């Protein structure tokens, strides 16, 4: 199954934004900007997993690294408190992992 990474990133940004709004934080363009800044590296990771170049364990390790990067960038942007940012990143990553699982 093919994976439309551009659509997945839009869904990730939407999911993260909704999570932040639910936490009472303001949703700005920062989430979209951070995801766009990291889109290439995440897309390469997704491509490697969906093509079978890396196994699930390696994918999860790299995904955890990407999650930390996204979280750090969002916190640096001071768009919300740490707990709200973690929930937003978790929400976005859930969309990504669900899309990858569906593609496999």
Q: Would you write up a description of this structure?
A:
This protein has 4 helices and no strands. The protein has one domain. Helix 2 packs antiparallel against helix 3 (56-76) and helix 3 runs antiparallel to helix 4. The chain has helices spanning 5-22, 30-50, 56-76, 82-103. The chain is globular. Helix content is 79%, strand content 0%. The relative contact order is 0.22. The longest helix has 22 residues, at 82-103. It is mainly α and 104 residues long.
Task: Please provide a brief summary of the model.
The protein has about 100 residues and is mainly alpha-helical.
Order of helices and strands: HHHH
Distance between the termini: 7 Å
Give the radius of gyration.
13 Å
- Say how many strands there are: 0
How many structural domains can be distinguished in the coordinates?
1
Percent strand: under 5%
Descriptive terms for the model:
79% helix; 104 residues; globular
Helices and strands, with pairings:
Layout (H helix, E strand, L loop, with lengths): L4 H18 L7 H21 L5 H21 L5 H22 L1
Helix pairs in contact: 1-2, 1-4, 2-3, 3-4
